[in-house]
Amino acid sequence: xxxxxxxxxASLTMALTSSFVQAESELQDMSNPLAVYTQAGIGYTDKxxxxxxxxxxxxxxxxxxxxxxxxxxxxxxxxxxxxxRTSDDxxxxxxxxxxNVDMENGRGAQVDVNLNLTNTxxxxxxxxxIQALPKMGPINFxxxxxxxxxxxxxxxxxxxxxxxxxxxxxxHGTFYVIGLYSKLELTNNIWFNYNPMYMGTLSGSDPFKNxxxxxxxxxxxxxxxxxxxxxxxxxxRYFANWSENTNYANGDHRIEVNYQF
Length: 261
Known about the structure:
Number of domains: 1
Organism: Vibrio amylolyticus
Keywords: Signal
Protein name: Porin
Helix content: under 10%
Signal peptide: 1-23
CATH topology: Porin
Distance between the termini: 40 Å
Structural class: mainly beta
């Protein structure tokens, strides 16, 4: 049965909210990609508005910190966005992350679930490890490696060669991701991030293995961000996302304000 976008969003929000465990913590360095803290954010993007909520929780270990984060992306795109790829005001996508970091060795582990709701419901779920390397002057590197599965509404090809939606969800295949988070500290409150990610298919149906990553079996994506820390709890960030097939100007752009509780 085809799921309504609002039902998917409400269900995921309720599941995440019910899993939160309130935890007191000291203020964290918001420029650190491995920082864990309770937060909220709002973004203005070329596809509408984004909302983000995140809450740290007690992992039961004195050396490990945990956090759940939910993002709702691309709503009111027709009214507020400026991208010609936006045609309505409904939610474009949802993202849920569960993140744990070991404070002693600087190693993080992340579960990352994405649901794209623009035309049909398609998603990915992955697990990855992130390792903080020793700081080199003003530069930090955090290499990442992981694997995941792609899933979503199923389509069968008709006799006329067209794709017809089916009333079921399928696992389309598996993929790997290798990448890097990096941080360049420009001043005490201004920093720059560059985060390239390389993804490739591992197994699955022929259409998935050959064309699922922007029409190919692999893709290199880019993310850049320039951030300003307004005070200990608040920052403003500009993000740009593009790939080897999409130039910077035609990529996704957003301005985001985040607050740490």
